[in-house]
């Protein structure tokens, strides 16, 4: 029921001519807070919140006192005295502005707050009271806000250090500062791509709304962003114009000057987001959990730490590659971004962003800049400093001097005009530097040859082609980890990189994720490969272990039968659980707690028990029947008797395997423990962490399932004999069944239903076997990263630039044209 305060607040808002959204924006609180206070759903408003609302409404002293009195009467408590100097974030405050807290720590900023906003520890995450998202007070409504604030503040600090270290390494790897960063210039974007300046400035009605001064240099990008009150900036630029370098520099500079209450800037490759399938906040949470598995741990409020950081506004999304979102999804992506008020920085190619704007609207409250081309002066300053000093001549001259002279003196000549059109982006200048400055004996004057290069496109393809050759040239003392002493041959490396680029094109994502290497294959191919590998592996284990207990001839037949049945059943399971849904098995963000008290994990155990028991029952019945028929055939007892033996074995094995598989899956859940919060990863470390987790799962599965099956088979003989008639069984049979079942079951689970198993089956066996990847895949990927062909973005690899990826994918598809086989790389076309 609406109270006196609710009625008064609603009347004052109507008198001011404001909507609930306008009042919330001006007061710096959540829309849900205003709505809840006006409907009476939120009880006991904080005096701080009431004063924020009074300021936003522009109340006279008498009206302000009436509103405060109504709030006190409603809450039934005495007004707490506050510092009169305390003030709210004003609409034109910079993103780093904060409210002075009333205690040892302010509350976490909310998604509806301006960037960097912080209030009192008693306020809830959206402007209501502490601990209850609905604004209702009570001891059971959640942890105190101060506890949540302190926990998230500490987690955010750890995340900030991890992010800074990651991108510092990436800058060093890409030689951004050698000899100095290429200049990145920008100008205001066209007005039709920018929101109203009043919205960007967050001005009240009637306020002046002149444009902001967004001028600056690359090393000033964080300061430029802080001048934008809305905390929203769009950076537009054509391919290779320096958008990615700008985002890295923004993150590092922002973190250097970041206050503890401010959000942590994190780079996300937005091209992998499907806005029609997952909400923006959920996607941010998933990406954080992937790149920082420790953030999957539950926070004080029960939700994951990653979700808590996103929901509390402690993450500043730096969204790189809006233009890389799948075709047809740009408009829904922009609409989804406009549905939030989160501060963010977004990069895109101009045409894709303009097309999305034309279909819907600009990014709300966002300023926009457009990256401009490099100038001849930029080239003259940079390129000569990338070469060695001339020997035996004038040390002030360099190999680039003739080229620069041609561009300066004859800018409209054929050779100079074509080269000048190419060397306007940092990407192409960097490639030219790698091909000619960093490679001995290469003369950059050849770039002016118009007979060889008829236009800018031929020049760009030349630089892209020769970049791979240059990157894979043999360097003294360079030995790739796990590779040969001579490294990887350029042509073969180009082919393998081309397949990876083609693989990403098929998946329509810039992220090269090691657990999705098989996703580019047809679903039927994936299922058959999984079934084939499991069949061979389990069949071999059955034969190798079984010969210790049974004659070789019988065990060979049993191994063929077990392998076939395992491949068939697990292949069917893989089809329905993974392939048919066209989903991937993500890497586990938990480890296995082998010792100590198991973590309480009641949720999900019932489902795991039912699934495990059902699968065990099906497999046990099938294996028991086939083995019984085989035994009857070997004993030559006749078909009816062999079928009867098969039915008896089917019943026994079905019960035994069901009793073993269900509890084993439940135990795997109970032994899971979240990874450490500080476990920021790169692709290789995530692979190693997942491998250790899978090894622990294998040990648990093999041991527990083997023991349960062996013991259950021994205990079940007596009641089964009473039910089915006399059965021949002994301790040796139980031991054999337990050992083989434990090993086989664990292998089937690992290969078919874990991310590391998918990696082994496809990246380590199938793709190298068909010539599309080298056998030493990890060494090849790490070597490509060290050579600057790939980059690391959290737990995934990406090509250094989308332009390079597109070029390699196109050359790979051209290589699939019919021709005579010449080597392993000419194997069967991609399926």
Give an overview of the whole structure.
The protein has 831 residues and is mainly alpha-helical. It contains 28 helices and 10 strands. It folds into 5 domains: 1-88, 434 Repressor (Amino-terminal Domain); 151-371, Rossmann fold, CATH 3.40.50; 376-471; 490-517 and 773-826, Arc Repressor Mutant, subunit A (Orthogonal Bundle), CATH 1.10.10; 523-762, no CATH class. A 6-stranded mixed sheet has the order 1-6-2-5-4-3. Helix 12 (330-338) links the parallel strand 4 (315-320) and strand 5. Helix 10 packs across helix 11, helix 21 (552-579) runs antiparallel to helix 22 (605-635) and helix 22 packs antiparallel against helix 23. The protein is flat and about 95 Å long. Residues 74-142, 594-602 and 820-831 have low confidence and may be disordered. The chain crosses the membrane at residues 529-554, 560-578, 609-631, 651-673, 694-717, 737-762. Residues 79-95 have a biased composition (Basic and acidic residues). Residues 131-146 have a biased composition (Low complexity). It comes from Streptomyces albireticuli.
List the helices and strands and how they pair.
Elements: H1 4-15, H2 20-27, H3 31-39, H4 47-57, H5 61-75, H6 145-173, E1 186-188, H7 197-201, H8 221-226, E2 232-236, H9 243-256, E3 264-269, H10 280-291, H11 305-311, E4 315-320, H12 330-338, E5 344-348, H13 350-359, E6 367-371, H14 376-382, H15 401-409, H16 414-422, H17 426-437, H18 456-471, H19 490-507, H20 523-546, H21 552-579, E7 590-592, H22 605-635, H23 639-670, E8 672-674, H24 683-724, H25 731-753, H26 755-769, H27 777-786, E9 790-793, E10 796-799, H28 802-815
Parallel strand pairs: 2-5, 2-6, 3-4, 4-5
Antiparallel strand pairs: 1-6, 7-8, 9-10
Helix pairs in contact: 1-5, 2-3, 2-4, 4-5, 6-9, 10-11, 16-18, 17-18, 18-19, 19-28, 20-21, 20-25, 20-26, 21-22, 21-25, 22-23, 23-24, 24-25, 25-26
């Amino acid at each position: 029921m609406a109270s006196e305060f609710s009625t008064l607040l609603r009347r004052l808002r109507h008198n001011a001519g404001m909507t609930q959204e306008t009042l919330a924006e001006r007061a710096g609180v959540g829309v849900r807070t205003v709505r809840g206070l006006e409907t009476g759903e939120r009880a006991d408003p904080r005096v701080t919140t009431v004063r924020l609302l009074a300021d936003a409404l522009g109340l006279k002293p008498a009206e302000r006192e009436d509103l405060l009195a109504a709030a006190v009467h409603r809450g039934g408590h005495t007004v707490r005295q506050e510092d009169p100097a305390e003030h709210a974030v004003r609409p034109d405050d910079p993103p780093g502005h904060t409210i002075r807290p009333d205690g040892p720590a302010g509350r976490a900023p909310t998604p509806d707050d301006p960037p960097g906003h912080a209030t009192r520890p008693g306020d809830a995450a959206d402007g209501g009271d502490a601990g209850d998202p609905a604004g209702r007070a009570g001891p059971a409504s959640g942890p105190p806000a101060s506890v949540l604030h302190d926990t998230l503040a500490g987690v955010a600090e750890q995340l900030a250090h991890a992010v800074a270290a990651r991108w510092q390494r990436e800058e060093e790897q890409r030689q951004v500062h050698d000899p100095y960063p290429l200049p990145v210039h920008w100008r205001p974007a066209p007005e039709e791509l920018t929101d109203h300046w009043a919205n960007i400035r967050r001005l009240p009605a009637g306020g002046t709304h002149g444009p902001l001064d967004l001028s600056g240099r690359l090393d000033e990008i964080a300061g430029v962003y802080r001048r934008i009150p809305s905390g929203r900036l769009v950076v537009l630029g054509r391919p290779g114009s320096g958008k990615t370098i700008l985002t890295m520099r923004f993150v590092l500079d922002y973190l250097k000057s970041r206050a503890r209450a401010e959000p942590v800037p994190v780079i996300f490759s937005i091209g992998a987001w499907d806005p029609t399938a997952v909400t923006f906040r959920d996607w941010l949470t998933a990406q954080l959990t992937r790149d920082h598995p420790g953030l999957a741990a539950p926070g004080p409020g029960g939700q994951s730490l990653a979700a808590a950081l996103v929901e509390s506004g402690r993450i500043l999304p730096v969204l790189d590659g809006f233009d890389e979102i799948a075709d047809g999804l740009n408009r829904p992506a922009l609409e989804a971004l406009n549905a939030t008020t989160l501060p963010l920085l977004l990069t895109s190619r101009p045409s894709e962003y303009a097309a999305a704007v034309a279909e819907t609207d600009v990014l709300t409250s966002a300023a926009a800049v457009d990256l401009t081309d490099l100038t001849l002066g930029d080239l003259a300053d940079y390129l000569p400093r990338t070469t060695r000093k001339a020997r035996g001549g004038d040390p002030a001259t360099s190999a680039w001097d003739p080229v620069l002279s041609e561009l300066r003196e004859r800018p409209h000549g054929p050779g100079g005009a074509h080269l000048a059109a190419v060397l306007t982006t940092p990407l192409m200048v960097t490639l030219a530097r790698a091909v000619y400055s960093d490679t001995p004996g290469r003369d950059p004057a050849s770039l002016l040859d118009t007979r060889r290069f008829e236009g800018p496109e031929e020049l760009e393809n030349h630089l892209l082609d020769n970049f791979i050759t240059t990157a894979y040239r043999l360097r003294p003392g360079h030995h790739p980890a796990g590779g040969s002493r001579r490294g990887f041959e350029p042509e073969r490396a180009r082919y393998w990189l081309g397949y990876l680029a083609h693989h990403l094109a098929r998946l329509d994502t810039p992220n090269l994720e090691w657990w999705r290497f098989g996703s580019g294959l047809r679903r039927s191919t994936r299922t058959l490969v999984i079934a084939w590998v499991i069949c061979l592996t389990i069949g071999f284990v059955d034969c190798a272990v079984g010969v210790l207990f049974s004659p070789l001839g019988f065990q060979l037949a049993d191994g063929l039968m077990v392998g076939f049945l395992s491949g068939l059943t697990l292949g069917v399971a893989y089809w329905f659980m993974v392939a048919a849904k066209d989903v991937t098995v993500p890497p586990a963000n938990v480890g296995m707690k082998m010792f100590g008290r198991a973590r309480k994990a009641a949720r999900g155990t019932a489902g795991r028990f039912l699934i495990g028991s059902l699968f065990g029952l099906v497999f046990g019945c099938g294996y028991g029947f086939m083995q019984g028929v085989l035994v009857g055939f070997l004993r030559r007892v006749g078909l009816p008797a062999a079928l009867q033996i098969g039915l008896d074995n089917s019943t026994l094995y079905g019960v035994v395997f069901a009793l073993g598989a269900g509890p084993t899956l439940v135990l795997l859940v109970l032994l899971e423990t979240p990874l450490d919060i500080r476990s920021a990863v790169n692709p290789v470390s995530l692979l190693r962490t997942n491998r250790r987790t899978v090894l622990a799962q294998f040990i648990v599965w093999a041991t527990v399932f083997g023991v349960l099956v062996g013991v259950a088979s021994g205990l079940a003989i007596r009641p089964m004999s009473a039910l089915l008639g006399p059965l021949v069984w002994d301790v040796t049979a139980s031991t054999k069944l337990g050992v083989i079942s434990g090993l086989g079951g664990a292998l089937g689970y690992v290969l078919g239903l874990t991310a590391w198993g998918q990696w082994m089956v496809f990246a380590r066996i199938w793709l190298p076997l068909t010539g599309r990847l080298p056998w030493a895949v990890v060494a090849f990927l790490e070597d490509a990263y060290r050579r600057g062909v790939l980059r690391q973005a959290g737990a995934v690899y990406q090509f250094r630039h989308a332009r390079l990826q597109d070029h390699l994918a196109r050359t790979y598809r051209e290589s699939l044209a019919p021709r005579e086989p010449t080597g392993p790389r000419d194997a069967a076309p991609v399926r």
